[in-house]
Design goal:
CATH class of the domain at 5-26 and 35-207: Mainly Alpha
Shape: globular
Distance between the termini: 18 Å
Number of strands: 10
Largest sheet: 2 strands, antiparallel
């Protein structure tokens, strides 16, 4: 019988885990005849420490780029260009020509089911051991581990439901023992999401709100589970249930927005007050395996997002032109002193006003723009210890770079930080700003209910206030009446447009699990969006600059600008014509079931 590749990989991983964890108890009886392929919850899972070890394996299985696929999920949406030449017309996800044979499709499917299988091992072991522990404290801790395993099984199934085959995927609620046990049919999408939510509800009811021990930092909590539940109902346009869970997250936990948005992007300030669901990484990686190996504690996102040349990046994902211009055009709160900075010349010398006092000026770009992407005109936020124009190449129509996930806050370049471009910044999957914006959407019911507009704007403006942006609504209104407002009377429809086209993409670009792509699809605007962006009304201009060391230079075509007519546009910046032509909702809205699964699973379509 031909075995599909992913089944072999998952089977090997599960069997290896059992053998490694059980090795300490096999010294005297290792010659006893037994079936080496049989996975038994009786052979290893006997103590609380065994459950702890199993749960550690679940966290490790979830800490892989094969699940998040941040760069390829960017390519599928509207927020980036592919790298290695702009645009990279050979990228199947950008071009919307991917199939079930693509590595990303296979690897994502395999990685998510590995989380399911390892979670099921812990779940089965707990159910076998429950009631056998000698102390109440041990029983309570075992129940917490059980709830953690349920959480990750629920999240993995939620991601599978969002990602593949219109949500119709395989459900595993047991530990496979034989190869035949892996061959299961797909189940209807409603059964899959119900199964995922049942696990998440159990987790919300049995996980703590916070963990008391420092060694437990980064474990998922009841708030993590409620946030995923809220997101799941919002994705189904079940606004009442979404409002219930999202409001609980906001009001019944101690989450708070961080002082600066960039606390959520880099390796400093991890597990901060805004973090709700965060995956831990570290640069202290395993030298014996490749940086690409799933067993690494580090990741290679700095290489993927950083500019090329002296900074050593692959520039695999650039911000799209519309996103760059939206950041550049963000209006600041003119009444907030934080938006006024000391004026310096190119060499960093402070300028004086006529009365001898320090000269000040308005920031060039908003704090959110400056901390989210690197722009050639930027002089208020250093980038790898200098002005962006000095450090990054900004050529060949490269007019901005994502700052997120890079080591730009702690290194002179990615080359000096590590030879292989590794990074240790955690991946923040859900943070409070995301919850605020989802809650606002649920209040206006996706743009159909004007009754919730005022409260929705309160939460959107909390997010905007943190980045010192001009607030939404009439002058003098809302929670921050002294801030400058756009003086617009919003209704549910216009506020929803703002959320879809500006607030969520600018606040959350490149974050979470496919946030932007899933937003576009669930709002029903993805085809319209590709059509809108198929004609790029942009061009570039040269940008002269002076380094901090006094040397002058020019970034040729490094500054992006809008134009009014197609004939004035830069031809290389028409970046969505092929995706618009190729995208077929029935084929590309969801990832297909991997070809390996289709050819290797005889029961898949029973």
């Amino acid at each position: 019988m031909k075995m599909k590749i992913y089944t072999f990989n998952i089977w090997t991983a599960i069997l290896s885990l059992v053998l490694i964890l059980g090795s300490a108890g096999c010294q005297d009886d290792f010659l006893e005849e037994s079936n080496p392929n049989q996975i038994s919850t009786d052979s290893f899972w006997k103590t609380l420490n065994d459950l702890e070890s199993g749960m550690t394996a679940v966290y490790a299985a979830f800490s892989t780029n094969n699940i998040f696929q941040i760069v390829d999920e960017n390519h599928r949406s509207d927020i980036d260009w592919p790298g290695w030449g702009r645009p990279n017309t050979g990228n199947a996800f950008f071009l919307q020509t991917f199939t079930g044979a693509d590595n990303m499709v296979r690897n994502k499917w395999s990685a998510l089911y590995e989380v399911v299988f390892k979670s099921n091992q812990v779940i089965a072991a707990y159910e076998n051991l429950s009631g056998s522990f000698t102390t109440e404290t041990a029983e309570e801790r075992a129940l917490e581990i059980y709830a953690e395993a349920k959480f990750f099984r629920g999240v993995a199934n939620f991601y599978l439901h969002n990602s593949f085959n219109e949500g119709n995927v395989i459900i595993f609620d047991y530990v496979p023992v034989t190869i035949e046990d892996f061959y299961q049919p797909i189940r209807p999408a409603n059964e899959v999401i119900d199964f995922a939510r049942a696990d998440l509800v159990f987790a919300a009811e049995n996980l703590p709100s916070t963990w008391e021990r420092s060694v437990d930092l980064g474990r998922v909590t009841a708030g993590s589970a409620e946030a995923v539940l809220g997101k799941s109902y919002l994705y189904d346009a079940n606004y009442d249930s979404a409002t219930y869970y999202l409001k609980n997250v906001i009001e019944n936990y101690n989450y708070a927005l961080t002082p600066d948005i960039n606390w959520n992007f880099h390796s400093t300030n991890e597990f901060n007050s805004e973090s709700i669901f965060e995956v831990s990484f570290s640069v202290n990686y395993k030298s014996e395996v490749s940086i690409w190996d799933k067993e690494q504690t580090a990741h290679n996102y700095p290489q993927l997002f950083a500019p090329g040349g002296p900074l050593g990046g692959f520039r695999a994902s650039y911000p799209a032109c519309w996103l760059i211009m939206s950041y550049k055009e963000e209006k600041m709160d003119l009444n907030d002193p934080a938006n006024y900075v000391n004026a310096y010349d190119w060499l960093g010398n402070k300028l004086q006003a006529g009365d001898g006092s320090d000269s000040t000026r308005l920031r060039i770009f908003s704090k959110r723009a400056s901390q989210s992407i690197a722009l050639v005109e930027e002089r208020d936020e250093l980038y790898y210890d200098a002005y962006p124009a000095q450090k990054a190449i900004f050529n060949n129509s490269e007019t901005a770079y994502f700052r997120k996930f890079t080591n730009s806050d702690i290194a002179e370049s990615e080359r000096t930080f590590s030879a292989d471009g590794r990074g240790g910044s955690n991946v923040r999957l859900i943070r409070l700003a995301d919850v605020y914006l989802m809650y606002a959407e649920s209040l206006i019911k996706g743009g159909t209910d004007d009754a919730g507009v005022e409260e929705a704007m309160l939460y959107i403006n909390k997010v905007r206030k943190r980045s010192k942006l001009e607030l939404l609504g009439l002058n003098g209104s809302g929670e921050f009446p002294n801030s400058s407002h756009d003086d617009i009377q919003y209704n549910a429809s216009s506020l929803m447009d703002h959320l879809m086209y500006l607030e969520r993409p600018l606040e959350l670009a490149s974050e979470g699990h496919a946030i932007r792509y899933l937003d576009l699809r669930r709002w029903g605007i993805i085809e319209k969006r590709f059509d809108e962006l198929s004609v790029g009304l942009y061009t570039t201009a040269h940008w002269p600059f002076i380094n901090l060391d006094g040397k002058s230079g020019t970034r040729w075509g490094g500054s992006l600008m809008r134009v009014d007519a197609v004939e004035d546009a830069h031809p290389a910046l028409v970046n969505r014509s092929m995706p618009a032509e190729n995208f077929n909702y029935a084929v590309h809205a969801y990832l297909p079931i991997p070809t390996d699964e289709e050819t290797g699973n005889p029961k898949l379509y029973e």
